[in-house]
Amino acid sequence: MTAFRESAVTAPGVRARRAGSGRWRRALPGYLFLAPWLAGFFLLTLGPTLVSLYLSFTDFDLLRAPQWVGGANYERIFTSDPKFWSSVAVTLTYVAISVPMKLGFALAIAMWLNRGIAGLGIYRAIFYLPSLLGGSVAVAILWKQVFGYDGLINQLLWLAFGVNGPSWISNPSTSLYTLVLLSVWQFGSPMIIFLAGLRQIPRDLYEAASIDGATPRQQLVKITLPLLAPVIFFNLVLQTIEAFKAFTPAFIISGGTGGPVDSVLFYTLYLYQQGFAYFRMGYASALAWILLLTIAAFTAIAFLSQRYWVYYEDDPR
């Protein structure tokens, strides 16, 4: 009788342990496949992020142990660092000009390709090629040569108009805009996404609008842009983040100085200078966290604004 009672008490616990063991064995292959990503995330992303947060409150020059200084780095950034504000102004100007121009150009080319022209695959590959090259060193050097005093642009100006152009790279008034043109030239990635979105719009809507007498402009405003709004929103967020992170072209074209006269001193370039030229790792970490919070704020504003201009098919509005 006693043995029967002990068996009745322990049996549910044993069954639960066996069930848990079975679930663990079934899930084990999944965890093994995830292990490389988890190791990379904790060791290469989350770990350095937390370390940089700690270093942002220290004075650290790589040679001595970090010295805790509290919020002194952040106070110095906002109160006594004019180059910080210069880099912010340059970066915001670059983002405000390059992102709309790049998205507008990408949308225009995508709409042209969506007309069903012959050789679509070839055109798509040609236009996407600059995006594959990305912000590489080779492209930045090429751009420096094209817009230099003896570059291709000035040679074309001389042949066409007999004009001796300036060195667009060395002129503080034009150097930033050469980088904007480089960003716009690499429009292939958003163009491919726009093209995929345009292919999802039913042709029946355009045919019905044409029968009703709608002009191409009215079809663009009333059909294309509203139905393409989720894709525009996606590209806007993605390209804004990329623009904030721009570094390589400014570094190569200015020789790492951000000149002339800090005209291409991007925020990321100034952060690099503080960390790896002056070995102010604590200060650079504070700059990095300000950049992270700025990008997060812009992304949050974009997500909050989408309710006013982005339409989804399952939207109850």
Distance between the termini: 68 Å
Spans of at least 5 consecutive residues whose pLDDT stays below 50 are none
Given helix and strand content, the structural type is mainly alpha
Q: Specify the number of helices.
A: 14
* SSE ordering: HEEHHHHHHHHHHHHH
Rounded mean pLDDT is: 88
The main β sheet shows up as:
2 strands, antiparallel
Percent helix among the residues?
A: over 70%
Q: Strand content of the residues, in percent? A: under 5%
Strand order of the largest sheet: 1-2
Supply Rg: 27 Å
* Number of E-type strands: 2
Which term fits the overall shape?
flat
List its traits.
two-stranded antiparallel ribbon; 2 strands; 1% strand; mainly alpha; flat; 14 helices; 317 residues
What features would you describe in this structure?
- The protein has 317 residues and is an all-alpha fold.
- It is built from 14 helices and 2 strands.
- Strands 1-2 form a two-stranded antiparallel sheet.
- A hairpin with a 7-residue loop joins strand 1 (58-59) and strand 2 (67-68).
- Helix 4 runs antiparallel to helix 8 (188-199) and helix 5 (137-146) packs across helix 12 (248-254).
